[in-house]
Amino acid sequence: MRLRFLVVLGLLCGSPAEAQSHCLDYEAKDLELRGRLARKVFPGPPNYESIKRGDQPDTIWMLRLDRAICVNRRGEFLAQSRVREVQLIPSEHDVHNLRIYLDRQVLFRGTLRGAEQGWHHLPVVFWAQLRMVDVRIGVWRPPEVELVLPSALSAAPARFACWRFVMIRSQHNAGR
Q: Where, residue-wise, is CATH 2.40.50 in the chain?
């Protein structure tokens, strides 16, 4: 009876390989992670140990994930479980615009790597590009939405200057 119970328990729990099958992989391309954009200050150069003892403050971008993730081991990057925050390395294009999305829900697409430099302060680093921003609860929009007036409106007399409807075109769809 006891042996049968252990076999059933083993079937319910699954194998370690099955448990890690839902984990993400380091260096996989085009992963999408969603969470709240945040900033945090860590000790920086020269020793990366203590701001009080003379290290410069190093402020990083972080993504506080909606759901914890796990990451499989790959090479020198160790497996990680229950990861709730990843250090965000934004694209060169996004780095200047992120401040306006601070503390908002965002969606990034990119590649996970493990911490390998002194300025990597969290064990999982996400090299990514901003894809979507939650502008209202449940309403997602691409970043950098620009308003474009049709040529007929832009040439119209001033009495039409207060029209409420305009066409919206995002940079992501402009090239299509």
A: 15-141
What whole-number distance in Å separates Cα of residue 20 and Cα of residue 79? 10
pLDDT in tens, 139-176: 777 775 443 444 444 444 443 333 333 333 334 444 44
Compute the distance between CA of residue 164 and CA of residue 148 in angstroms, rounded to an integer.
Answer: 12
90/112 Cα distance (integer angstroms): 12
List CB contacts of 135: < 8 A, sequence separation 6 or more: 141
- C-alpha pair distances (Å), 151 with each of 2, 128, 148, 169: 79, 36, 9, 14
The half-sphere exposure of 134 on its side-chain side, counting CA atoms within 13 A, is 15
Instruction: Enumerate the β-bridge partners of residue 62.
Output: 38, 87
pLDDT digits (tens, 9 = 90+) for 47-63: 889 999 999 999 999 99
| Contacts (Cβ under 8 Å, ≥6 apart) of 50 | 43
CATH of domain 15-141: 2.40.50
How much is the pTM? 0.67
Distances (CA, A) of 161 to 13, 146, 148, 155, 168: 65, 17, 13, 10, 17
Q: Please state the rounded mean pLDDT for residues 130-138.
A: 77
At residue 44, the pLDDT reads 92
